[in-house]
Amino acid sequence: MRILFLFLLSWSLNASTLHLATSSNPARLNPILATDSSSSEIAGFLFNGLVKFDRDSKEIIGDLAKKFYFRDSTTLVFELQEGVKWHDGEEFSAKDVLFTYETLISDKIASPYSAGFRFVKSVKMLSKYKIEVKYKQAYFKALETWMMGILPEHLLKDEQNLMSAKFNTNPVGTGPYKLEQLEYSKNIVLAAFDKYFEGRPKIDKISFHVIGDPMTRFLMLKSAQLDIGSIDPMAFERQLHKDFFEKFNIYEKISLSYTYLGFNLRVEKFKDANVRKALSLAIDRQELVDILFFKHAKVCSGPFLPGTVAFNKSVEVPTQNIVEAKRLLKLAGYDANYPFEFEIVTSNSNAIRPYAAQILQHQLKKAGVVVTLRVMEWQAFLNMVVFPHKFESVLLGWGLSPTPDPYLFWHKDSDKKGGFNLVGYNNSRVNKMIEESQSIVDRKRLGKIWQEMFQLITDDNPYLFLYIPNSITAVNRSIKNVKPSLSGIWYDYRDWEKITIK
């Protein structure tokens, strides 16, 4: 208790430090290589793109670009902010934008983000602070692509291997915070950047505590050792009391994410459409949501989220039908004497998913399916299972942009090293629709194509789409100026202040 008291006392004396938790060590704090959630979250404080979404994620506004416009349907011009400094004091310019683009399209890196630049014909410096981008054709995500963090040309131009560069653990960006300390499995500290071009953040430091165990994260939040934290629904309903709500404000919204069970379609037994449909009919998605989330989630019906133009509301969630599931499995050659067997692999970094895996195992057993479970640490899960495609099925989730890009997840060309088509999905009709849709900028027309794609993908069952969780975030009342929006709580974080509550 004395150690804990001294620990809390030392934190209270440093009122300008925001204490957060991350579930795993960041793999690479490099925006074009940050594919895991921890790396992406932390890199977001360190780097800027040319543009960003407004606070409600409806309009695209300038970031490192003070102005942008289309000369015609395939020519985009960015006029850059002047006087922007990198964390090492060097000046940002068009050279950095050109360098970042050339790095992304080179064969020296493997990044899923490179796909966003596949329609770029050329990037040209018109002046020190002006860039011209020419596209091969009109592209519906031409602007959003440039939300990618920009890299410093002066530090990386001579780097031979960016994938293993020291820069990835010692990054230099233009963002409102700079890296001060990186202690793996312990603590990652960011310090406010005094010369940030939009003004220095009011909170001096952000300290990310690396805590792999969800229960430990929850207990640290309860004891106010963390200022902000996510709360899973069961804990919210059953384990929080009045004193917690006196210390914390609660912000809840539907998340821009979903959880799925993805089948490795390169594995022979999952190539049979009857098998995949049988597994879909054997589970009860609503029961999964009711057990795990109470009223804090909804069933997911497909690959694009409700509220977007891509969502197809006519697609119904499959109703559990054990009899039909058994019939389809029998057609595929499986029965009580020769049951269908497979493994579900997931990570313990998410508090809910190991329990979801157990429920799926129980539900599938009713159809005679034998499921084994494997729960892994996050980085091992990514590096040994997910990205090398060494799995039969994975229980995972995607966080999505308000403007989805089906190419990243559902086109055959994204089934490659570093790509996000993790399950090896390949439907020739979907591929063609994705290719044709890339040059369509009419949102209404694009929405109709995406909705048809929604139906085709769900009919194929490459994933069992499971649930869309609510995001429940607790913020210590000592943090002032938090203004939640449709995009969440973080949009105005530079204006936050931390006061000492006595």
Structure description:
With 502 residues, the chain is an alpha+beta fold. It has three domains: 2-26 and 37-46 and 164-253 and 472-498, Periplasmic binding protein-like II (D-Maltodextrin-Binding Protein, domain 2, 3-Layer(aba) Sandwich); 51-155, Dipeptide-binding Protein, domain 1; 257-470, Dipeptide-binding Protein, domain 3. The protein is built from 15 helices and 20 strands. It has helices at 2-13, 37-46, 94-104, 153-156, 214-222, 233-238, 242-247, 273-282, 285-293, 322-331, 353-365, 378-386, 406-410, 428-437, 443-460, and strands at 17-22, 51-53, 60-62, 65-72, 75-80, 120-127, 130-135, 177-183, 187-192, 205-210, 228-230, 248-254, 257-263, 297-299, 341-347, 370-376, 393-399, 463-476, 479-480, 497-498. α8 runs antiparallel to α10 (322-331). The longest helix has 18 residues, at 443-460. The protein starts with a helix and ends with a strand.
The average pLDDT is 92
Largest sheet: 8 strands, mixed
Number of strands: 20
Helix content: 25-40%
The amount of beta strand, in percent, is 15-25%
| Beginning-to-end CA distance, first to last residue | 20 Å
- CATH-defined fold name of the largest domain: Dipeptide-binding Protein, domain 3
CATH architecture of the largest domain: Roll
Number of domains: 3
What form results from the Cα inertia axes?
Answer: globular
State the CATH class of the largest domain: Alpha Beta
The CATH H-level superfamily of the largest domain is Dipeptide-binding Protein, Domain 3
Number of helices: 15
Radius of gyration from the alpha-carbon trace, in angstroms: 24 Å
Class by SSE composition: alpha+beta
The residue ranges in which pLDDT falls below 50 over 5 or more consecutive positions are 1-15
